[in-house]
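Project standup — Tuesday

K.O.: blocked on the structure for the chain from last sprint. Re-posting the sequence here as requested.
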Amino acid sequence: MKVLIAESNPDLGRLWQRHMDRQGMTTRLETGQSGAISALQTQSFDVIVLNLVLSEGSAIAIADFASYRHPESQIVFVTNTSFFSDGSIFSLNANTRALVQTDTPPEDLTAMVEHYGRIA
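H.V.: unblocked you, prediction finished:
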């Protein structure tokens, strides 16, 4: 299973990455929109873990590009805000499967990625 992680905080991204790698997933960590889009231009991913609040670029732009280029990719959004807590994120992108808080335990996030990756 291939997973793209787009997370501005490299320490948090590496924490998630290590948990997923230990479960046998192949992961790629990018810290902003340009890196994530570059990754999506050259390869496909079963799941994209995408922080809604990136310090560089737009998470929604990444999700839109992924939906167009790789419609089979499943997206798990993470956030530390209450924005989109009403569930409206699901109407913005057809590939969205979950919205969780950034402080979700890494093992729980990994289990969600594993679950949605089987759907892809």
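K.O.: great, moving the ticket to review. The chain has a mean pLDDT of 90. Strands lie at 2-6, 26-30, 47-51, 74-79, 96-101.
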